[in-house]
Amino acid sequence: MQMQYVRDRVQLDSVTLGRHDMRFILRNTDVSMANAIRRTMIAEVPTMAIDVVTIHENTSVLHDEYIAHRVGLIPLASGAADAYTYNRDCEECEDFCSRCSVGYSLTVHNSTEDDVPVTSKDLIPAADSAVAAAPPGDPVVPVHDSGDVLRDAVAAAAGTPGAGLLTSAADAAAKGILIVKLGKGQRLSFTAVAKKGIGKEHAKWSPVCTVAFRAEPPAVRFVLPRLNELLDETAKADLLSLALGVVAIDDNGNLYYDSPFLAGRSAITADAVRRAGELAAAAGGAESEIVEFCEHPERFEFEVETTGVLAPKEVLTRAIGVLRDKVTTVAAHLAQVSQEGVDDPPLL
Ligand SMILES: [Zn+2]
To answer: What domain of life does the UniProt record list for this protein's source (predicted)?
Structure first.
């Protein structure tokens, strides 16, 4: 059958939105576009993250670098990221200013007898920067109810029934993200500066934990009716040993697709294809009869989970914006190309 290359417009459907996650199906496009969207969501959507930590006093059990690293990973609400300039490009300041950065401070002294947790809730935005550049109602503040906090706490509580079970995101938000625990008499005091950046520079700027897609139909499939016809019981068992999670054998001794394969969680390996070919050939068949290839998947099922810094829909919208800007840059540059050519290629 002749493959049709002229496709309809790219289409998005079956969108399911959660607070920190989203599922959707992309149609009428190919693997390169699906992967470009996936990679842009992971690595090129700008967000805010703490990049400079100046420790004033630290008598906790963790050393300065460790604390700075933990603070850098605290997700910061980044709806206003586009309102900031990159610190390296900022023409307003030598160091930091409200156009390119957000300042925070933290000072905790444990004067009690018990351990005191220092969390993202103790990070206080500096009055002169956080609110200044961000649009009203969209300040760059820590996202306390990161999905992981909730999940970890629930898992921990499951092991010890009744001990601090977190039942809702609001409870997680109330607790904050743990930086360090201070023992009796210990102090922690630092100032921190958040900057705009992208996941390509450092994973802390990535707005997502995962973005995955699976192509439908899968690239390689067995022609099961023909395999069932050709192979005897021993050959089927032989193939099964190389394709666990892909095929299974029913009560009548016939191969069928197992649920992990149907759900896209397993794929047919090159070894399994080779063995199936050998077994089919030994039974008088041909390799070409028992495997079919799909070079042009028809749809891509995406799963996105964010770190909480941006709504999942916003991550997708901004990723598409980044891709569009790149193509626009190329087009604008092309328009300037004269007969002699240009010296500076566009930066993508
Ligand atoms: Zn600046």
So the answer is: Eukaryota
